[in-house]
Amino acid sequence: MGNTFGQLFRITTFGESHGGGVGVIIDGCPPRLEITETEIQFDLDRRRPGQSKITTPRREADICEILSGVFEGKTLGTPIAILVRNQDARSQDYDEMSLKFRPSHADATYEAKYGIRNWQGGGRSSARETIGRVAAGAIAKKILKQVANVEIVGYVKRIKNLEGVIDPNTVTLEQVESNIVRCPDTEMAEKMIDLIDQTRRDQDSIGGVVECVARYVPKGLGEPVFDKLEADLAKAVMSLPASKGFEIGSGFDGTLLTGSEHNDEFYLDDNGEIRTVTNRSGGIQGGISNGENIIIRVAFKPTATIGKEQKTVTLNKEETTLAAKGRHDPCVLPRAVPMVEAMVALVLCDHLLRFRGQCGVLE
Amino acid sequence: MGNTFGQLFRITTFGESHGGGVGVIIDGCPPRLEITETEIQFDLDRRRPGQSKITTPRREADICEILSGVFEGKTLGTPIAILVRNQDARSQDYDEMSLKFRPSHADATYEAKYGIRNWQGGGRSSARETIGRVAAGAIAKKILKQVANVEIVGYVKRIKNLEGVIDPNTVTLEQVESNIVRCPDTEMAEKMIDLIDQTRRDQDSIGGVVECVARYVPKGLGEPVFDKLEADLAKAVMSLPASKGFEIGSGFDGTLLTGSEHNDEFYLDDNGEIRTVTNRSGGIQGGISNGENIIIRVAFKPTATIGKEQKTVTLNKEETTLAAKGRHDPCVLPRAVPMVEAMVALVLCDHLLRFRGQCGVLE
Amino acid sequence: MGNTFGQLFRITTFGESHGGGVGVIIDGCPPRLEITETEIQFDLDRRRPGQSKITTPRREADICEILSGVFEGKTLGTPIAILVRNQDARSQDYDEMSLKFRPSHADATYEAKYGIRNWQGGGRSSARETIGRVAAGAIAKKILKQVANVEIVGYVKRIKNLEGVIDPNTVTLEQVESNIVRCPDTEMAEKMIDLIDQTRRDQDSIGGVVECVARYVPKGLGEPVFDKLEADLAKAVMSLPASKGFEIGSGFDGTLLTGSEHNDEFYLDDNGEIRTVTNRSGGIQGGISNGENIIIRVAFKPTATIGKEQKTVTLNKEETTLAAKGRHDPCVLPRAVPMVEAMVALVLCDHLLRFRGQCGVLE
Amino acid sequence: MGNTFGQLFRITTFGESHGGGVGVIIDGCPPRLEITETEIQFDLDRRRPGQSKITTPRREADICEILSGVFEGKTLGTPIAILVRNQDARSQDYDEMSLKFRPSHADATYEAKYGIRNWQGGGRSSARETIGRVAAGAIAKKILKQVANVEIVGYVKRIKNLEGVIDPNTVTLEQVESNIVRCPDTEMAEKMIDLIDQTRRDQDSIGGVVECVARYVPKGLGEPVFDKLEADLAKAVMSLPASKGFEIGSGFDGTLLTGSEHNDEFYLDDNGEIRTVTNRSGGIQGGISNGENIIIRVAFKPTATIGKEQKTVTLNKEETTLAAKGRHDPCVLPRAVPMVEAMVALVLCDHLLRFRGQCGVLE
Lengths: 363, 363, 363, 363
Known about the structure:
Chains A, B, C, D: FMN binds at residues 124-126, 286, 301-305, 327. The structure is a homotetramer. By secondary structure, the first copy, chain A, is of the alpha+beta class.
């Protein structure tokens, strides 16, 4: 029962790579929010396969249908159900995988846990599952924007060893979307695209790091001690396919500094607001947002499914080799950007409602 | 309401640094488990302040009392309540902090969120809160040991730039406990102790990395898509005070490899079990344990509270400086080791019960 | 966010009376359960409108589609999504209700809570929402049957003042389904049908009592102190539309007895099993099933929407009258029977998994 | 793990009848609420044993200690822990019950579920567990009073066949507390007291009905479809020891009316507010509060533990008889009144916060 996320703004996703479709139920959405399928489609299009030469060629329009919860263009406060039908399912590509476990993929563990799996396209473990997250994230973003003008911008920070130079405090969605790899350092972006393209031709895959910033987040979000904001953000992005690491603010590098070097000293800005001079905390202190920009980084491993031949075993416990057919991303990073943004938006929106629930009632 | 953790094996902690005490309620514990306060005390002693020259000199015996849920030495299946009274509370040390916000601490954000805070010793944001986690973790460890012989060993991997060489596949609790910094690389441990001691004398602080391994974890734990095992582990440790980053298996470094280099090829071991040649996955694939060793790393920043003078502001919005009094750890890492172990144990135990609940019923 | 029910076997429903459709996501279902749409359809057909002359004439085939979670006829352990499209939606019948609040219906309270509502056919407050519950209940029933041979039989006990004589210990589904009012006392059933028919012609409505028995429920289900089995059953059925009361075992009448009259004395049956001579407890003691038949009763009020003219007010706060058009049930009881069964099944199935999770792991 | 109740205002209780103590953790309490142990003690004193000649003579002062979450007289927003130590535990009274199962008590089912039980005084199944609920309820009441002037008044409506005449719209706490049976119909109260006293002398027990009214509840509380306000109220009170039935508004008797008789017609009051002429709905329509008085009734069976000899079986599966020693209530009703009030307060407070969380954020 691990398919529900969030406490007050709560989503439940469903669906496998092949079959009837994938989607999401959003429960707890504030009523009277104006929302259209077009707004949701914008982020779905950023996520969908076949969007560029460096993503999987699988063709899915990923057109979403709102089944419930919206009436005359506004949310009702009741569950919003969104469905995306599966279309371009070439199941025959997966016949071999019905028997052979792909190394470092979910095939073997799903089989071990459930004693059964939908081996077509990875079934539930397919990145296709994230459609529901991205659709729900689009709604969360709109609420955050409307209530507090929150901006969430994700981008590719690094592909393998190619790292862009990007200022999280000023980067814009337009800059991110200006190229197909979604790295706003346009010079480095070209090198990244070349590397991904070369890797694709090599039948191999690569990984990298997505960075995401949330600006204008109100102070006070996050609930110690277990639902600290960074803890919920970590869980959110570590539940994405292929993620292997999470950092907030100074992250692992911050451990090389002393406290006097690392601490963010306070000052009063021109409006008399308490601010920090530096932002090594990454916008969260003691598990609660402090009004500075929230900055996180997520490590994505190289895609597990590759065309190169690898040693593996079969369902029937025989050793063999596998050179995967099917259509796969040589690098998940460009499509992971809207996924990370969605997960950040879902966490912030949930905590915005929770904050209002607990701390707003005695005002 | 962020003070409850877990779905089936569920803990709720309470308490502030100063006041009546701190503790935990454990709900959902399997019945008839033999457990004593002595077993719980073992891990509490590894966590408690004043245990060595490199930890805070605050003196707390941290003796736990089981209030309920255990009868004639065995768990009843009903809630286990554990209480530790506060003793050595020198509130006067904190008078200054009732007005001045410590940089990079939780003072300002608690004030922003709740409009009130217990400023004595950090109140709820104190690491003292983790007593409840460690006590509950001791019980979780015992269940895991009894059901599946699971071993959980945490240790200090790095202090600032001093990194130990440790084999997670063989490291033992005895090796970890052989020195006060809890780094099983004994040569490096001495250097670490010297560095912490020097930092303490400098009125400054340092951070580092804790690594933790869980061995003999049964296959099948973890619930995609949101409660993937690595996602719940990430949330668990990122909810600990001072944590800034999380990695599993190859982590951030894994992003520098290609898929063909990174993937863990499968083979059959002598017992016909499906195993992986390498373990870059860190024991989890597709969000589900695969039977290999689970290996995670957690970055802890340098302690925020330091004796050196820093710029800050007051509750009344005046700029000032603060040189913190009180008794604080120059480095949280040695005491963070049992905390990380506890959080890992809580996640694994919860998922063990959940696995049994969903997948065991039709057997 | 009140649209999710259950802890381990967890359902989330969505959909309004008019619009894209209604449905359910079932999360946590045990894997490898054989299930077909036909099995689910059986209970949906018992619930659907237009099934007889004493139900609403609205025509909905209510054909269900399994969107995910089932592969080659077996559950995958991943979320099962079931969708039923809306068809016969005559929205024009509801034009008047877009302005006028139906007395004792949900119109005014939805408007008060959300500031918006889908006034077509009651929107989310329509009994049409229960399709998702009944579909999920069909799966829960099958699990209970397969694991422990549990039988759940609901039936109409009373319509207005017409009460049937039925033995809960022996009543069968076939007896219940032998007439359109679902009262196994066939003689009384005819009188009930006549009364409902007369009430329909009078443009009025009536209510009554549904009784439900669960036989062969394993001992040990239910989790004190808040999730006692009777507490979860009460919540389950009190969340059904039009329910006004709940009883277990002796219920309200039991309060007229003394303890010595009311207590269920124990004895040992021929197999040496601990049994009770009487069953005033209704199969649950101390919140935990005791192996005897679980027997509950649910009071359903007369349908709120009636053709007779009534005083009411409008959205714009003007006093007026309303004689409801549209197609409505003169009595919800016959269709409520599968709803009550479904809710009982969902509670028992959830607690079966929870019991296995907590108490099965140390076996 | 059934010992936590509520979503945003969430309580977790712990403790057995004998042992270290009983208590509660309240998580999610709004910050800056003024609260004292004296205010909590008021309701605890209404619940405690030995308060009058018609309750159990067990002597427990039930003095509560706030361990955390309150600072300088105000709530911190962090978990509030409240502990009541056990004192007058005469375990020897229960020696016989370590082997013999009390009919209609929880002894046998706890043993069946957990394979172990604390047989002293009923352990966790003791009504002593409700101390935590009543303490938390006192805080919930204060929040409701402060935010919306909500009044919650419970009282004994009926003892066995002795029914009082009480107007829920005007009854006051003072009237309820004017006699030891807590029935505001003072004439009937005397008869009730005599009947309970006689029953006590007969070594027997009796039950009855508690009615509870909540006045000035804001419109909009309750979350369809599963967390309807009446569904959560039903669960809340059906989780109390000895409860066998629940009604809201017209309840079971309402099923004897036609829709045109039962419906609550709307009108506009002098302030232009939408009101209902009658209140058969009991203050809730469609699962959401409508601003009218919420009125519920709870059936409590006669106390299971009686001095009269009864047939039973032993842990070792031998048939025997039991005439219970120990000190028990001949009738739980007088002490159940504050318990019912507490559960109603907890539900309303939770839904008040939830309402604010979902529906307040876009205001």
